[in-house]
Batch of 3 targets.
Target 1
Amino acid sequence: MTIQRVTFARPLLAVAMVAFSTFYAFAQKAPVPTRVRGTIESLDGDTLSVKSRSGEDVKLHVPSDLMVSGITKISLSDIKVGSFVGTTTVPGPDGGQNAVEVHVFPENMRGTGEGSRPWDLKPNSSMTNATVAESVVGNDGHTLLVKYKDGEKKVFVSVDTPVVTYVPGGKSDLKAGAKIIAFVKPLPDGSLEASRVSVGRDGLTPPM
């Protein structure tokens, strides 16, 4: 009887090991990107070829209704109380939040993605889209109090922090050499489709 129980247990153990191996393989798969940053290599029909910032060749499907926006530089002084902004921040040495970049939304984009969430631009970075409630000007930059529906955050923006805004764009901006950030989603066949693309104007790299 003992021998039969051991013999019966072996197939069960093998099945369990296969199941664990399959689960582990799925767990080790790289996460599907939601943003692709890089340089356009070509636009061929509905396929946008991009060299990502990490050096990978990425092909994105471009739908007919793709949203394209231009990104252009503005001045730190263009950030006003009442402006709706997005800012990538990282923790500062004093426990505050230092801006890596700030993008000022035009009025017709007010409310876009309002709130604060983790971001993938830099380690420990977060993205906050909010309204500027206060702005204190100092010798080395501005300190902004930004408020969103679930809270607020105090952000230091140095004089060297890139500040940009959105301008109207189109597929004609998707030229070889242009720097972009593409917001993407996976298709059923495993390929990626761009839902929105921001293109730097005049050689600018979108800083967000």
Note: The helical segments are 2-28.
Target 2
Amino acid sequence: MDDNGGMPVVQNTKVSVIGMGSVGTAIAYACLIRGSAGALALYDVNAPKVRAEVLDLNHGSQFVPHCRITGSDDMAVTDGSAVIVVTAGAKQKPGQSRLDLAAANVAIAQTLTPQLLQRSPDAVVLFVTNPVDVVTFAAAQSVDAAPGHVFGSGTVLDSSRFRYLIAEKADLAVGNVHGIIIGEHGDSEISLWSSVSVGGVPAAEFRRDGELLFDEEAQRRISSEVVNAAYEIIEGKGATNLAIGLSTARIVEALLGDEHRVLPVCTVQTGACGVSGVALSLPTVVSANGAGRVLEVPLSEAERTGLLASAETLHGVQQTLGL
């Protein structure tokens, strides 16, 4: 019961997904099977495609938590959303870097964001479209939204790849590994080895059978694998979609559940760790209000230098795009 005449307040758990390509579809599917949302609205300019995806998802409704699924090529389907996930844009081709995609996808974000927020003024808008840092910066600049209401999926997936590789090498469950990637979601990202903990042991001191597992060579190899993971997957199957679907569903849950969970999402930085005027990923508190406080994570000298170089790379791209 609440104090509004004894009627319970019904929480808005409507999530809209913009763009029904392989990533948008994977996000909708992950949200459905994890029970992340109370309602899913799918939008795409391709009407037969979006209708087909809605039918396909609805046909499995017996086997998942209850969720109302709608879809259309009319943006009105997104009206009154709590969270809007944007995946719309040109997709990365084999051999193409995320930053090469920038111009086309920035233009799409600048057009879409104001239209979406006009229909759902209180929504939090989460960008997954690559290059996510530059696209998020452009989208945030295109509207006068509350701070943290427009942010990007950032390095949440990269950090999951990072933890998986560390866990594999240590022969432990991934839940026992804590570690994050910061900076650009792309080639200049930084693995924060100085704060990695494996079962509570700092990575640099973690031994198995008396042998140090994470020496400099192992660290370099794992960091490089994280950066190149997407290229390998795109080469093999055309797109990365399943893990980004799961990691995005996890961000959606932190928003709708008002979890105050620390995730390395991408926001327009205003001075944390010496970075400002650019959107990139740092550990950030995610709650119902969107992306909030950015934590000042301790950085080694090399990590700080790497982060500032990553910010510089993104600054350069923003300038060439006139942002």
Note: The radius of gyration is 20 Å.
Target 3
Amino acid sequence: MEHPNREQLLDLFCRLAYKSGDFILSSGQKSTYYINGKLVTLHPFGALWTGQVLLEMLPAETGAVAGLTLGADPIVSAVSVVSAYENRPIPALIVRKQPKGHGTAAWIEGPELVPNTNVVVLEDVVTTGQSALLAVEKLRDAGYTVTHVLTLVDRQQGGAELYAKEGLKFGAVFNIGEIQNYAKELH
């Protein structure tokens, strides 16, 4: 059963985040389109709908959500805030790309949770899947259990296969075909 605001989230992605052209992705690959998820996840309604849609997709045993800075920061925050409103409070963690350069030299920001807490890694856009995998690795190193990765958009360029190989369950709110088809209808 999909969330009633999923369609509005799709519309926002196509209007704000999806661009055609020639781009180089963070994976180094060339692409004829680019999706800047932050234009949606930092939009007031985009953040709300992101939180609502992803919260509904979380496994029942989820103890926290986490993601790699910067793309996942507004996503984990949105899910955490919406979870509080839904009376199902789920803390958010942010995984750094490098350890903090001072103080505790931490890789992970957020509340300290009990060991083996089930943490779901969230991502805005998955291409090869490498970004979320770094988050998974750092969370596991910190003693947490990670079995799921969820993304807003799956570009379907190897991420799902990589996660399967790593024993992770993977889910996407949208795949690239759905975004491209909807975007075409707008033009």
Note: The chain has a mean pLDDT of 95.
